[in-house]
């Protein structure tokens, strides 16, 4: 699919935008890139955009018989909402890390079942981010949390690009090339 791309379904585009914005906001909060902005500042975005809106987009996708997007967006939306409402609660670092590992299991499932390269990239980067953030909680390591934030930023950028590419008819797949000159790729 070089330049001949389909716009995708409206629910997929909206879902990717909501996921992208949430990942960018939370990820930037963990990186500490912007002075005075932390992940706690992204809680309202995670609750309403990543949680409520993404969950509703998932339900609409189910209604449209898009079970892949419906599953992805409703599951991730429910988990973002849970993360947001529990942020600041008095839970142990190990409990927070465990939640992030469970969230990572969902991201792993979405990574291996994603239908296109950009979705696999988004969920794969998100998976790495969640694992790093979980380990950071277990170990009390701010450096790992910052690294996890950067992976979340990268995942958010890929999700944003996927949504924008679908609307703008930009390329959404990397063309396959032969392994070496003179070899014809099959498939």
Automatic annotation (TrEMBL):
Key words, A-Z: Membrane, Transmembrane, Transmembrane helix
Compartment(s) where it occurs, according to its Swiss-Prot or TrEMBL record: Membrane
Lineage: Bacteria, Bacillati, Actinomycetota, Actinomycetes, Kitasatosporales
Keyword Membrane in annotation: yes
One GO cellular component, as annotated: membrane
Residues that span the membrane, as ranges: 12-33, 45-62, 69-89, 95-115, 122-141, 147-170
Pfam families assigned to the protein according to its UniProt record, in alphabetical order: Gpr1_Fun34_YaaH (PF01184)
Chief site of localization: membrane
Topology versus the membrane: Multi-pass membrane protein
Domain of life of the organism encoding this protein: Bacteria
Family: Belongs to the acetate uptake transporter (AceTr) (TC 2.A.96) family.
Name of the molecule in the record: GPR1/FUN34/yaaH family protein
Record has Transmembrane helix as a keyword: yes
